Amino acid sequence: MSGSHRRRRPDGSSGVRHPGRVRLxxxxxxxxxxxxxxxxxxxxxxxxxxxxxxxQAADPASSDPAASEAGGGEPLVAVVRxxxxxxxxxxxxxxxxxxxxxxxxxxxxxxxxxxxxxPGQKLRLPDRR
Length: 129
Fold this sequence. Notes:
Elements: H1 26-51, E1 76-79, H2 86-93, H3 99-109, E2 122-125
Antiparallel strand pairs: 1-2
Helix pairs in contact: 2-3
């Protein structure tokens, strides 16, 4: 008997695996799936940032449609935009003046105990003519 004789499996295969095929464990599939998901989220986030129009920043007085002054002695009102702070609202309405003083007046007029404001909130502004 020669020792070089190979036995065949009952299914007819020789038992040699196909070297070109990659098999992943469950953990490997999870890692690959999470990587693809993260990559997709990054692409979507990038596209959202690129597709967002630039903010209006030229002239604060003329580009702020949320601020309006009505006749009849009604106060000036500003609607808080996303990303606004009391400092940014005050600076828009007193570009060369005292922003600290304007912040305190805005807080007093609107009964604000802190410095937190929210998008959509209407703030009464002092009349500084």
